[in-house]
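step=encode ok
step=design start
structure_in=
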């Protein structure tokens, strides 16, 4: 479908009053559904090739009654509509041409038969589309009328046989019409006309057909005529599904704060049951917000096709009616030209908004607009499969399947030994108002709210009044150890991952929880912090203050570097747990916390939070029923990472990793694992040692409900290694692995990751083309966009790269490629690199920024008294270095950049201001204005 054609099609639907429109040979890639103005579009095409493709477009009245859709393949789709007294199934097809292989035609009819067989027998069945067949003018009782066109061909005979088998009638052969109302296709030269598009209907509903004919006056630039059938059918009125409440929080009116504050003053805050107090506070906020705050309106996408283009489309339609083919072709070319012009003008307007947001300092709006412009077109896919692999297309079936899947995922027998609601008498110190104030202020804005539909902004604008009420609720929870029901509820949003979008297992369930509950959870997190920090070792860097993925990536690279330097073979196992966070056993979690010295009061609070928790799944057809959660740490809860870390640490202790002598020895220290939350990497100096560590971890993990995903667990070694068999499953040996987003290779060379990052940077740069080629965005803004959205992609994990001269040249070449692309300067222009840099005037080159990150990280590590990273960076491994010139090490690049010895660097990093000045000087020297 060409540029602007969808808007023309929608205009024609509105003009002619069409409720359901089928399109064949759409030539869109992918599949899905989306809304556009007052219409809803269902489509299916090939994955990558712009071939075939079918679509159904329905107006908003019909869209409300749609029960589900089945995106079968690139030649057929169907929708099911709720009708009275029977439902209606509409199938849109695009049959193979007569020149197609026989096997392709057979496959088409087999697929269509499958689609008919899954359609309920009582449904009103309509099959519409381009059949590429001629059924002729001969009447066949019950199948065709005597008002067809032309002579039947082989494809037409096949279609008639198909209709007879399924008791279908071809509607546009039943009514006597002028020939111009019968033919559906005209050849490009205008010399030949045929009837190859048909609307099929169940024979039992033949009396509902009022007419079926073409409308030659309708036009959207196609060589096919619009075929219209008028059916007398009734749609069932469908009630609105209640979606989440979305307030317009950009300007909360003063009336809201006045009303809530006045009503909060009347609240009795002393010795109240938490549930009752919360319900009163919640109702006050909801009532005041509903009354005073306007709802957030769904932003309609701006129409970019101008009235001039639509007027030309109207003139083109008139030329078609008059049979003026030459004028029609000219107007068609004019329409395409103006549509391209309108699209360009629309993009320029968007770019002006980007420039204005940048000028006004509206960073959030700036990058949101950039994301909208560079983002690929995303559609939703509602169809999912049941357990047996059958496609579910009905709304209720889809909701039930989501509930069934999530219940199975989190279902576990309830611990009968524990009495819900039990409390402990020995309490920790009371919650302070200052803690509540800190927790409320640190809660992030612009986040989706939980089941109570109250965003954090509605509390934060009340300031001390909200703090007082929330403090009272939190303190009552602290004393009674009982949580309000809303605070124990989660709303799951399925987010697709890699793989088929029809499989529930290929979705990540993101949970939305009450924003008010986050205040209490933050306070609880603060009280747990001392126990978490005390129990977790340095090898665990996940969700810990001052630690991050860069530390573990650096550790891994330095271990590889030491092994290469001292000629040691080392072996790694990258463990992948199957849904680790969702498989935590609650009863064992409380035992782990007890053994790790967490006070009974805090354990009881956590236990009562988990015992009564419920969840629902929000689908495209509404939410499921509420169901209980029996296992796994809470999705969306800020406590979950630290609880899981403690749980995983206990498993590693039980596996004996701390005491084991298996591992890698660096600076008299034995290291056999690195962890980032559930991402666990085992390492050893021999294959036998690694296998021993893996089996111990696997056995202990299984005891605590965590199962290894053998297919995704990989092994890698600097020396020779073969694939392993674990319980009949093969564990793959690889030469490279994406570790926390960074590629680690068996040879320990950073060049592979640098090349990969530069390729990702090129892709990110290409996605910004629409923005960077605009003349309405100033050069400084373009440079800022590139530095904010391209360079960070390249620099991820660069702190630990060991960069050689060849890598430097690649990085410099990539930066200049970016600037040349930004300036639209081709290589043939013969402009020097110096002139390009002079026009851009970057404060710091890309390589300079990488050097800066490396030196800052070096200084950060050197100032620590003792740390795992510092040990691995400077420590030595047992073994002998090879003869001759040694390979460059990471900290050799630090020495080279600063032109200082390691002893002098140790002294320099202690003076922070002097070190910052040194780093600034080094990075500036890397930014060359001349070649």
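sequence_out=
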């Amino acid at each position: 479908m060409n540029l602007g054609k969808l808007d023309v099609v929608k205009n024609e639907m509105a003009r002619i009053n069409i409720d359901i429109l089928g399109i064949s040979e759409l030539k869109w890639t992918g599949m899905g559904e989306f809304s556009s103005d007052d219409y809803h579009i269902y489509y299916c095409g090939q994955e990558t090739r712009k071939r075939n493709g079918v679509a159904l477009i329905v107006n908003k009245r019909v869209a409300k009654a749609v029960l589900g859709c089945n995106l079968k393949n690139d030649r057929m789709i169907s929708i099911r509509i709720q009708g009275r007294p029977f439902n209606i199934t509409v199938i849109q097809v695009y049959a193979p041409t007569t020149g197609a292989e026989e096997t392709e035609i057979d496959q088409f009819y087999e697929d269509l038969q499958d689609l008919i067989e899954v359609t309920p027998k009582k449904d009103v069945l309509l099959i519409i589309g381009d059949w590429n067949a001629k059924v002729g003018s001969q009447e066949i009782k019950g199948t065709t009328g005597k008002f067809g066109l032309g002579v039947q061909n082989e494809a037409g005979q096949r279609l008639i046989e198909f209709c007879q088998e399924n008791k279908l009638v071809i509607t546009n052969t039943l009514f006597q019409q002028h020939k111009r109302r019968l033919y559906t296709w005209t050849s490009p030269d205008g010399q030949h006309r045929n009837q190859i598009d048909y609307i099929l209907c169940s024979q039992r509903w033949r009396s509902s057909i009022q007419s079926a004919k073409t409308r030659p006056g309708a036009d959207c630039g196609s060589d096919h005529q619009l075929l219209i059938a008028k059916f007398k059918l009734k749609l069932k009125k469908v009630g609105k599904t209640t979606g989440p409440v979305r307030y317009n929080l950009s300007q909360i009116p003063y009336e809201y704060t006045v009303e809530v504050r006045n009503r909060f003053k009347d609240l009795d805050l002393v010795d109240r049951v938490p549930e009752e107090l919360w319900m009163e506070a919640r109702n006050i906020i909801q009532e005041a917000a509903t009354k005073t705050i306007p709802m957030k309106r769904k932003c309609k996408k701006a129409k970019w096709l101008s009235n001039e283009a639509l007027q030309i489309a109207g003139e083109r339609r008139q030329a078609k009616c008059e049979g003026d083919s030459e004028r029609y072709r000219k107007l068609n070319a004019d329409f395409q030209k103006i549509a391209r012009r309108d699209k360009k003008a629309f993009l320029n307007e968007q770019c002006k908004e980007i420039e204005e947001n940048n000028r006004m300092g509206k960073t959030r709006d700036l990058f949101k607009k950039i994301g909208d412009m560079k983002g690929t077109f995303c559609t939703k896919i509602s169809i999912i499969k049941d357990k047996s692999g059958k496609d579910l297309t009905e709304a209720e079936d889809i909701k039930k399947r989501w509930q069934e899947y999530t219940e199975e995922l989190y279902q576990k027998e309830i611990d009968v030994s524990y009495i819900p609601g039990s409390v402990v008498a020995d309490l920790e110190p009371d919650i302070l108002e200052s803690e509540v104030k800190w927790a409320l202020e640190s809660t992030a804005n612009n986040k989706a709210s939980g089941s109570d539909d109250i965003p954090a902004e509605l509390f934060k604008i009340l300031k001390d009044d909200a703090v007082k009420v929330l403090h009272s609720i939190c303190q009552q929870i602290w004393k009674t150890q009982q949580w309000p029901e809303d605070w124990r509820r989660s709303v799951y949003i399925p987010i697709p991952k890699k793989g088929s979008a029809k499989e529930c297992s290929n979705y990540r369930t993101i949970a939305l929880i009450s924003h008010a509950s986050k205040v209490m959870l933050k306070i609880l997190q603060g009280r747990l912090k001392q126990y978490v920090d005390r129990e977790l070792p340095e090898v665990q860097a996940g969700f810990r203050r001052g630690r991050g993925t860069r530390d573990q990536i650096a550790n891994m690279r330095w271990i590889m570097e030491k092994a290469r330097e001292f000629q040691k073979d080392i072996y790694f196992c990258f463990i992948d747990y199957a849904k680790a966070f969702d498989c935590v056993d609650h009863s064992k979690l409380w035992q782990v916390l007890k053994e790790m010295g967490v006070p009974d009061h805090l354990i009881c609070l956590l236990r009562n939070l988990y015992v009564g928790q419920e969840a629902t799944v929000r689908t495209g057809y509404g939410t499921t029923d509420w169901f209980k959660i029996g296992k796994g740490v809470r999705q969306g809860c800020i406590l979950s990472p630290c609880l899981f870390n403690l749980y995983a640490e206990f498993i590693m202790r039980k596996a004996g990793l701390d005491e084991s002598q298996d591992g890698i020895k660096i600076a008299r220290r034995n290291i056999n694992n690195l962890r980032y939350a559930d991402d666990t990497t085992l390492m050893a100096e021999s294959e036998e040692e690694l296998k021993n560590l893996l089996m111990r971890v696997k056995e202990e993990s299984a005891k605590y409900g965590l199962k290894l995903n053998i297919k995704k667990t990989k092994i890698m070694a600097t020396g020779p290694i073969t694939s392993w068999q674990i319980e009949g499953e093969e564990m793959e040996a690889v030469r490279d692995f994406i570790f926390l987003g960074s590629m680690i290779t068996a040879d320990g060379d950073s060049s592979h990751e640098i090349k990969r990052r530069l390729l990702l940077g090129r892709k990110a740069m290409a996605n910004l083309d629409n923005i960077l080629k605009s003349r309405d965005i100033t050069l400084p803004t373009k440079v800022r966009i590139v530095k904010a959205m391209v360079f960070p992609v390249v620099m991820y994990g660069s702190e630990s790269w060991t960069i050689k001269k060849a890598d430097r040249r690649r990085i410099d070449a990539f930066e200049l490629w970016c600037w040349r692309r930004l300036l639209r300067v081709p290589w043939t222009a013969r402009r020097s690199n110096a002139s390009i840099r002079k026009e851009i005037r970057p404060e710091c080159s890309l390589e300079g920024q990488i050097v800066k990150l490396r030196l800052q990280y070096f200084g950060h590590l050197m100032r620590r008294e003792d740390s795992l990273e510092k040990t691995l960076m400077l420590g030595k491994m047992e073994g002998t270095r090879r003869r001759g010139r040694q390979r460059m090490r990471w900290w050799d690049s630090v020495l080279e950049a600063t032109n200082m010895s390691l002893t002098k660097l140790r002294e320099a990093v202690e003076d922070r201001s002097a070190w910052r000045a040194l780093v600034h000087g080094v990075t500036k020297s890397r930014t060359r204005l001349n070649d």
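step=design ok
step=annotate ok -> The chain has a mean pLDDT of 88.
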